[in-house]
Amino acid sequence: MVWDWIPRNTALIWGALQVHVVLALIPVVAGLVLAVPLGWLASRNGAVRAVFIPAASVLYTIPSLAVFIVLPAILGTQILDPLNVVVALTIYTVALLVRSVADALAAVPALVVAAATAMGYKPGRRFVSVELPLAVPVLIAGLRVAAVSNISLVSVGALIGVGGLGQLFTEGYQRDFPTEIIVGIVLIVLLALVVDGLLVLAGRFITPWARVAA
Amino acid sequence: MDGGIDVIEFRSVTKRFADGTVAVDGLDLVVESGKITVFVGPSGCGKTTSLRMINRMIEPTEGTITVDGRDVMAGHPADLRRGIGYVIQQAGLFPHKTIRDNIATVPLLLGWSKPKARARAEELMQTVGLGPEMAGRYPAQLSGGQQQRVGVARALAADPPVLLMDEPFSAVDPVVRESLQDELLRLQGELGKTIVFVTHDIDEAVKLGDKVAVFRTGGHLAQYAEPAELLARPADDFVDGFVGRDRGYRTLGFLSDEVPLGTITPVHVGESATGGWTLVVDEEDKPLGWVTGAGPVAEADVLPGGTLHPVASGSLRSALDAALSSPSGQGVAVDDEGRLAGSISADAVLAALAAAREAA
Ligand SMILES: Nc1ncnc2c1ncn2[C@@H]1O[C@H](COP(=O)(O)OP(=O)(O)OP(=O)(O)O)[C@@H](O)[C@H]1O
Ligand SMILES: [Mg+2]
C-alpha cells in the first residue's frame, strides 16, 4: 500500500467519485419516475402485470456488459458515451422497481382504499394522497437495492472506458498498482453504505407513521 | 341543522354481480329522514351491498336509488360521496395521516382551507369524546374504540345530512361497543342525521334503530318495521328465528313503564336498621346498597344493590331487571337526579305487562 499516492491524486479520486455518483444515481431517479406509473398499471391490471413482471425479470438477467455494448447500436451513441451507462442502469432500475411498486400498491389494504373512495377521493388524487404514501416503505426497500446495485454496476462501465471509481480499478490493474485498486474498492463500498444509509434515513423521515406502528 | 331533509329511496333495486351472484333482489325501501334505519340479517344477505349502492361504491344492476329525490347515478360519484358520511368496520382510517388529518379529509377535498379544516377536526374530536392530545397521533397509536370514534368524526366532518355505517362497532369488545352505541344515540339526538346502520347483531339493531329492515339470505327484505313491532309480531318464521329466543324479554324494552312504585324507608349510614333488608342512601337520598339485620349501619356493611330503574326514561325491561337483580327482591327506582323514588316488585312488573298486553 503506497499511502502517499492518495494525497497526491485527490483530484483524480474526487473526480472519479463524482462521476460514479452521477452515473449511479441519475438512473435511480429516472427509474423511479418511470417505474411508478408502470407499477401502478401493473397493480391495477392483471394482464399488464402478467407481461411486465416476467419481462422485468428477464431484463434483469441480461449481463450489464452486454447491454453497455449493444446500447450504442440501438441509441446511435458513441461506445464511450456515459449516456449508455445511464440508459442501461435506468432500464435495470425500472425492471427492479416495477415489481416493488406493483407489490407495494397491491399491499395497500383494500379497506383503506375503499374508505378513501367513499370519502369522495377521485382516483388520481387518491393515488397521490393515499396509495403512494402507503407504498413508500416497500418502495424505499426497492430503491435501496437499486441504488446499491447501480453503484456496483457503474464500475463495470470502466471496462468499456466510461469513468467512475471503476477506472481506478482498471488502471491499477493495468499498471499492476494495488493501492489504486484498493482505493477504488474501498470507495465503492463506502459509497454504497452511505447512499444506503441516506435512503434509510429519508424513508424514516417521510414515513413517521410507519415507526409508531411497530 | 341541515340534516333531516334527506330521504333515501330504493325502487325495485337488484344487484347481480359479474359472477351471477344476486346480492340484492328487487329491494323496495324508503329510509326515513332524520332517523336511524338499521339493516340487519345473516352474513351474506346483501346488507353491505345495499348500503354501498347508496353512495355508489356499488352500482345497481336494475332499479333506481334516490337520495333526497336525486338519482345517485346522476353526476360524478365523488361529488355524491362527499355529501354522504361513511363509517366502516375497523374504521378504515388512513394509517399515514394523523388523527387530525384523517378527520379533516372530506373538508379538504371540498376545498376548505387547511386551518379551517383542522379547526373543524379538533372540534369534532371533542364531539366524539377524544382528547385534544390525540390530534397529532397516528391511528396505530389508538385503541380500537378510539379508532372507531375517529371514524365517526371523519364521517361527520363536512356535516353531511346522510351517514352510512357498516358494522362500525363490531370489532370492539362488548363494553366499548355499548358505550359507542350510547354515544351514537346521544349524537343523533343532537344532529338528527339520516343514518343507515348495518349490523348482524339483532340487539344492536333494536337498540339503535328507529326502524329495522331484516334481510333474508338471497337479498330479499323479510320485514321492515319499528323494533317493538318486529319483536312483537315477526312477519314470518325466518324473522322469528332471527330475532331470537329472548325476544319476549327484549320486547319489555319497548313497553313504557306503568309500574306502580312501592314505598320504602331507607336509612343513612350511622343510623340504625330495624332488621331484614334495609336500603341505605347517602345525604342526597341516592341509593348506596343494602344491609341485613338490625343495629347501627356502618359503611363497610353495605352490600352493592342491583341495577337501578330510572322512572322517567325506563322501560318494563329496566323495571324487571331492577327487581330481579336486587339482593332484597325489591327493585329500586330513581328519579332523573338519581335520588330514590320508590321500590319495584317483580309481581308489579308482571301485572303491568299483562295490562300492556291487554291494551295492545
Ligand atoms: N364483488 C362481489 N362479487 C361477487 N359477489 C359478491 C361481491 N360482493 C359481495 N358478493 C356476494 O353478494 C352477497 C351479499 O354480500 P354482502 O357483502 O352484501 O353481504 P352482507 O350482508 O354485508 O354480509 P356480512 O354480514 O357478512 O358482511 C354475498 O353472497 C357475497 O358473497
Ligand atoms: Mg357486510
UniProtKB/TrEMBL annotation, chain A:
Membrane topology, from the record: Multi-pass membrane protein
Membrane-spanning parts: 12-40, 52-75, 104-122, 134-161, 181-201
Keyword line: Membrane, Transmembrane, Transmembrane helix, Transport
Database matches in CDD domains: TM_PBP2
GO CC terms of this entry: plasma membrane
Location of this chain's protein in the cell: Cell membrane; Membrane
Any one Gene Ontology BP term: glycine betaine transport
Cross-referenced InterPro entries: ABC_transp_perm/SBD (IPR051204), MetI-like (IPR000515), MetI-like_sf (IPR035906)
Pfam families, alphabetized: BPD_transp_1
Domain spans labelled ABC transmembrane type-1: 17-199
SUPFAM superfamilies associated with the record: MetI-like
Gene3D superfamilies, A to Z: MetI-like (1.10.3720.10)
Principal cellular location given in the protein's record: membrane
Family as reported in the entry's similarity comment: Belongs to the binding-protein-dependent transport system permease family.
PANTHER family from the UniProt entry: GLYCINE BETAINE/L-PROLINE TRANSPORT SYSTEM PERMEASE PROTEIN PROW (PTHR30177), OSMOPROTECTANT IMPORT PERMEASE PROTEIN OSMW (PTHR30177:SF4)
Protein name as annotated: Osmoprotectant transport system permease protein
Species assigned in the record: Pseudonocardia oroxyli
Automatic annotation (TrEMBL), chain B:
InterPro entries listed in its UniProt record: AAA+_ATPase, ABC_transporter-like_ATP-bd, ABC_transporter-like_CS, P-loop_NTPase
Protein name per the record: ABC-type quaternary amine transporter
EC numbers: 7.6.2.9
Limits of the ABC transporter domain: 8-243
Enzyme class per UniProt: translocase
Keywords: ATP-binding, Nucleotide-binding, Transport
Species this chain originates from: Pseudonocardia oroxyli
Recorded GO MF terms: ABC-type quaternary ammonium compound transporting activity; ATP binding; ATP hydrolysis activity
Domain of life of the source: Bacteria
Gene3D superfamilies xref list: P-loop containing nucleotide triphosphate hydrolases
Pfam families the record matches: ABC_tran (PF00005)
Family of this protein: Belongs to the ABC transporter superfamily.
